[in-house]
Recover the amino acids of this structure.
């Protein structure tokens, strides 16, 4: 019995994560969650063309519509939408990690993910960050599985993750495309020309929904690229100094996102080729958002699901008591921050708005 508990103690953390999620489903909308509820209401009014109701309501170009439709499906209990997406991310991370490293590492990766404080809170709030991070994680981990196992189903999962991520937030596609190109260059000896062509084909098909959405959006709002270029001051005279300032801002947040897992990272220093690729992906995420004039620590969340695998490969070398202590400390921090933000509403920024 003791051996069984030791082997599957990760289920305790996953179970507590979902139990907390069930308790928080009743929490009323916070911050600008009302915007997404309003957009979801537009979907219910006209599922095929919700934009016709948005033009007079919003002064900003809206994010891609996947979250709108997900929230519309659970309109009476909208927090169920991000929670279900996070559930998918955890289950798929476990499956992919198990194929790459085995059951023990897979369980630790899932436990490390659900106890991460930012992943936890973004799994319960109606923002695009949790949704896009989940699907970007699916795309990234699937690519790793495809590169290692050469199974075409993982290439298809990679394309599906890319398609859903790009329909969740505009930043997903450029980050993933740069990542895949860099990885292809580093792993060029692993792939045949036929496999590279297959990847390009899957990527091209996966981006069709996002391309069609941007076309439809341009009919209502004009050129979205120009809008976001102005919003993030991509063409300002101070643009050369901006990345350096943003990197100074983001680097401390990287340490807080890895949390107590740094202990295992520093003690074990187990970084195989997959872990190094994930670290490159994390650097691309940081670099991309450092180019934008918008400092938000939650933008770094897409790093967290793949980094959980890196943490798991180090945690597996630790004694069970050390693993349990690290994950327990993370769980406590995550629960405290989530309850303070959602239940006690200590981190209020914007008043609730609905349309």
């Amino acid at each position: 019995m003791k051996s069984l508990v030791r082997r599957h103690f990760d289920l305790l953390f996953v179970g507590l994560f979902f139990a907390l999620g069930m308790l928080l489903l009743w929490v009323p909308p916070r911050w600008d969650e009302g915007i997404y509820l309003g957009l979801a209401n537009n979907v219910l009014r006209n599922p095929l063309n919700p934009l016709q109701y948005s033009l007079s309501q919003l002064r900003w170009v809206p994010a891609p519509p996947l979250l709108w439709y997900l929230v519309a499906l659970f309109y009476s209990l909208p927090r169920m939408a991000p929670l279900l997406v996070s559930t998918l991310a955890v289950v798929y991370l476990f499956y992919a990690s198990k194929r790459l490293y085995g059951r023990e590492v897979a369980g630790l990766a899932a436990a490390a993910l659900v106890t991460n404080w930012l992943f936890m809170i973004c799994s319960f709030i109606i923002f695009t960050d949790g949704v896009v991070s989940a699907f970007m994680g699916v795309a990234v981990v699937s690519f790793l599985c495809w590169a290692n196992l050469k199974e075409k189903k993982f290439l298809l999962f990679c394309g599906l993750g890319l398609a859903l991520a790009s329909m969740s937030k505009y930043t997903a596609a450029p980050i993933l495309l740069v990542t895949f190109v860099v990885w292809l260059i580093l792993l060029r000896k692993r792939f045949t020309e036929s496999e590279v062509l297959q990847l390009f084909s899957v990527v091209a098909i996966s981006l069709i929904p996002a391309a069609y959405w941007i076309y439809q959006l341009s009919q209502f709002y004009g050129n979205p690229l120009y809008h976001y270029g102005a919003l993030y001051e991509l063409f300002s005279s101070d643009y050369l100094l901006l990345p350096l300032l943003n990197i100074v801002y983001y680097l401390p947040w990287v340490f807080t996102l890895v949390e107590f897992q740094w202990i295992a990272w520093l003690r074990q220093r187990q970084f195989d080729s997959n872990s190094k690729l994930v670290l490159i992906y994390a650097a691309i995420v940081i670099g991309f958002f450092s180019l934008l004039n918008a400092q938000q620590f939650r933008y770094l969340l897409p790093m967290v699901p793949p980094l959980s695998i890196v943490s798991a490969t180090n945690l597996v070398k630790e004694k069970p008591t050390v693993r349990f202590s690290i994950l327990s400390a993370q769980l406590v921090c995550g629960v405290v921050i989530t309850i303070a933000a959602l239940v006690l509403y200590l981190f209020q920024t914007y008043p609730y708005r609905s349309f």
In short: The chain is about 70% helix and 0% strand. The chain has one domain: 14-343. Residues 14-343 form one domain. The two ends are 54 Å apart (CA to CA).
